Amino acid sequence: MKTDELREKYLSFFETKGCLRRPSDVLVPRDDPTVLFTPAGMNQFKNEFMGIGKLEFTAATTCQKCLRTGDISNVGVTPYHHTFFEMLGNFSFGDYFKREAIHWAWEFLTDAKWLGLDKDRLTVSVYKGKWGFDEEAFNIWKDEIGLPADRIACLEEDENYWPASAPSEGPDGVCGPCSEIFYHPPGVDGDVEIWNLVFTQFNRVGDPPDNLRPLPSKNIDTGMGLERTAAVLQGVSNISNFENDVLKPLCVAAGDVVGVKYEFAAPQGRAIRRIADHVRAATFAMHEGVMPDREKENYVIRQLVRRALLEGYLLGRKDPFLYEIVPAVVDVMQGAYPEIGKTVESVQNSLKEEESQFLGTIERGLSRFDRFAEAAKSAGSKSISGDDAFTLHTEDGFLIELTEAIAADRGLTVDMPAFKERMGVHEEISRGGKTVSVMAAGPLDLLRKEHGDTEFVGYEEATCDSRIIGLIVDKKSVDSVPAGFKGAIGIVLDKTPFYGESGGQVGDSGWLKSDGVEVEITDSQKHQQTLFVLEGRLRKGQLAVGDTVTAEVDTERRSAIRRAHSATHILHHALHRTVGENATQRGSKVEADALRFDFAHKQALSPDEIRQVEDIINSQIVGGSEVNTELLPMKEARERGAMALFGEKYPDKVRVVTMGDFSVELCGGTHLTNTGQVGLCRITSEEPVAKGVRRITAVTGPKALQKGRETDELVIQLQRMLKATKESELPARVEALQTQLKDLNRQLAELSKASVADAVGEVVAAAEEVGGVKIVAQKLEGVPREALRDFVDQLRDNHSPIAVLLAAEIDGKVALIAAVSKSLVKEKGMNAGAAVKAAAQVAGGGGGGRPDMAEAGAKLVDKIDEAIVAGADVFRQQLG
């Protein structure tokens, strides 16, 4: 059975049991602060499990895209570890429970209509531990399913409870026993776990015993690994997920690109499997707009890309290659996720750029590694220190695996305990772990649970009467706010005309008013996309939960936001006409008559392209096309060709904004009724913001008019300053000034060199001599950075053999430079980098370079004299 067929069979089966088929949630949940990536199928149903908000359905089934990096070292090593994977699941929120979950799982696995697995090859486990026994599940398996007792394993809470070991160790909150299902493949030693049934039936309160309280509404959360079950059904060798019909072609493609034939048992097999896995994960994440970078989910993807690239590098591929595997990922995955085919080019461009950058890092970092290795050998050590490995990781981007591999190649090791100690927060981020409990419920969750969602009337009205249902001060719920209170207040209304920030559009501002009460609303945000929270300041009177107020939106500001938001849709259309359909939206920010728009594109727009985009926008504005907004089912919206933002989570019914005959987009923002109401749009900048992503900023309406006036005033001012009678004379006047400045700089440089030549004699006269080698270690006053290099060059050229360490205060900071005669590097193993590093550390800085010349910077100007002494000591030690 093919993987795509298994996915469809599972979802169809649970639909026949009354479960609603739901689409996979996004891989990067933007509105969930508890995780960086979606780690399991249950995450999108967090509110349903906790009873927060209106319950639209009580049973569901999904195939969820997931990404985890907690066991990343096992990827490619074991048969079943991945970073990206798909999890099949069926869920109940107070609907069916243990009996149905077990019976349905058995039916799906064994019935010939579905999977038809041999019943005699299936075994299960249930929870039996110090604090309880899931006798109910045990009896269902034994008495109703008919499994012999010797095929029902009773396991402790660390194996058969969710969360693991919850009764003993916590955390407090919803939890429950598990029942796992195992299959014994023919001709294979051992069983394979294919399904985990979680029965969330308790609320843990405090420590045992008697700390498990039955929940009034019992839930089901199950997970079946798609890749693993497909491997079992296909009877692949080693029952390895990487041998199934999706991952095996990816491994073969990765091997072909690297130039190594893929074979499961070959020495390079693990490396190729890791490459295939990591490229699949990166492709899906980058499709949703997560670009390799330094923070949070972006950092995780950067690490995956670099780990995969490193594997190829160590196999001999020294140029970018991962991007070539992306089409293979799309080929095997677009049957279930056709949308990933729309971003192939932008993902490839971004991936290739990241690869090129890291390969450059590898080459540059090798020289620093060589210095660390030489320093270790000089000190009689055969190990790269943890500090040096950490420096290579944080400053040169060297993954520790790369440092270890190069060290081993040169007969060295790495002090791993010291390195891991230095990593600290980096390891927490790279694991992509949770920041808080996935089931944490704050005051806003409790408000939503008690009162339901906020009714938003802002599309039709700018004012309405509302009732205050919640007040938040310092992140805590309060019943009232006294007169004279000066701090920020979070205010939750039962209905609101204020648009809550989302989809790139900022929140509305305005007022809440009643008899004797005025509250200035400065912002409006959304919690869980459905509970609106107003940020306000009490200007008059006092507030209390239950009060009735009149909510009034600042309509002038709202109109300015509507102009800018409508302009972003026109801009998107203009980009497609100018640079092509691949210029897909990657994000936006819409404010009052100002916007920024991020889009996928591998290179800067030319001045002509920018003018063309601006012309198209203003042509559509002048055309005065009608703007229509309607609420449609997602399927119908897509049939109409509505564009969606990749990585954005949409409800079942979506707002579709249509402008004339040129733009149809899914958008929940506020818009104009006619494009002519934008008035005018001016592009103010175009720049890069991430790999393969560009940003256009623009202004609309009155701000666009003001932008033109400011430009006119600037031109007039330049004409006056440059004594130009006409605007057309300005370029020639500026060019003449540049030529003059260039000549003056050349004259200044010649004077500086002459000055250095005069001073070199004094510097040499003060030199110390050790073993026939002059050591110059001095602080220079009032010299520019270029003069330091001139001093070094003249000292080495005319006074060798010599070792030089010079320091100066430049712009309030310490500048250091060290150099030694090249003959001293070869004959005595001297290293300027070691001297300048020692000096920089004393003055609170860092730096490096080649063995014959190195530079550094530092912050502590008052430590310059001590730094010079430290650097000179290194030179003396090197000379014995």
Automatic annotation (TrEMBL):
Q: What is the reaction catalyzed?
A: tRNA(Ala) + L-alanine + ATP = L-alanyl-tRNA(Ala) + AMP + diphosphate
An annotated GO cellular component of this protein is: cytosol
Per UniProt, which keywords does this protein have?
A: Aminoacyl-tRNA synthetase, ATP-binding, Cytoplasm, Ligase, Metal-binding, Nucleotide-binding, Protein biosynthesis, RNA-binding, tRNA-binding, Zinc
Record-linked PROSITE patterns: AA_TRNA_LIGASE_II_ALA
Location of the protein in the cell: Cytoplasm
For this UniProt entry, what is the primary localization, expressed as one broad class?
Answer: cytoplasm
Biological process (GO) annotations held by this record are: alanyl-tRNA aminoacylation
Entry EC number(s): 6.1.1.7
Q: Which Pfam families match?
A: DHHA1, tRNA-synt_2c, tRNA_SAD
Domain named Alanyl-transfer RNA synthetases family profile: which ranges? 1-710
Asked whether the UniProt record includes tRNA-binding among its keywords, one would answer: yes
Q: Which cofactor does it need?
A: Zn(2+)
Q: In terms of domain of life, where is this protein from?
A: Bacteria
Note accompanying the cofactor annotation? Binds 1 zinc ion per subunit.
Q: What GO MF terms are annotated?
A: alanine-tRNA ligase activity; aminoacyl-tRNA deacylase activity; ATP binding; tRNA binding; zinc ion binding
SUPFAM superfamilies the record matches: Class II aaRS and biotin synthetases, Putative anticodon-binding domain of alanyl-tRNA synthetase (AlaRS), ThrRS/AlaRS common domain, Translation proteins
- Report the InterPro entries cross-referenced here: aa-tRNA-synth_II/BPL/LPL, Ala-tRNA-lgiase_IIc, Ala-tRNA-ligase_IIc_anticod-bd, Ala-tRNA-synth_IIc_core, Ala-tRNA-synth_IIc_N, Ala-tRNA_ligase, Ala_tRNA_ligase_euk/bac, DHHA1_dom
**Which NCBIfam families does this one have?**
alaS
* Protein family: Belongs to the class-II aminoacyl-tRNA synthetase family.
Record's function text: Catalyzes the attachment of alanine to tRNA(Ala) in a two-step reaction: alanine is first activated by ATP to form Ala-AMP and then transferred to the acceptor end of tRNA(Ala). Also edits incorrectly charged Ser-tRNA(Ala) and Gly-tRNA(Ala) via its editing domain.
Entry comment, domain topic: Consists of three domains; the N-terminal catalytic domain, the editing domain and the C-terminal C-Ala domain. The editing domain removes incorrectly charged amino acids, while the C-Ala domain, along with tRNA(Ala), serves as a bridge to cooperatively bring together the editing and aminoacylation centers thus stimulating deacylation of misacylated tRNAs.
Q: What is this protein called?
A: Alanine--tRNA ligase
In which organism is this protein found? Fuerstiella marisgermanici
Encoding gene (name) = alaS
